[in-house]
Amino acid sequence: MRLLKNFVIVVLTLVGELWAGMFNRGPEFYDKHTETKTRKGYVWFMFLTFAATVGIVTWMYKRVYG
Q: Do 15 and 41 fall into the same domain?
């Protein structure tokens, strides 16, 4: 349970950092820089996001249980 709680806190912190920005960037900055103009760009973005998620979860699992 402690591991799950710590994981949730880390995720919420990362989401908050992305939303607020480290240098006082407002959400408008991210809205302009996250547009995907083509279907290929969207698919590529989704693939990279999925790969990063799987990589992070695998790395965390190996650190905790490996």
A: no
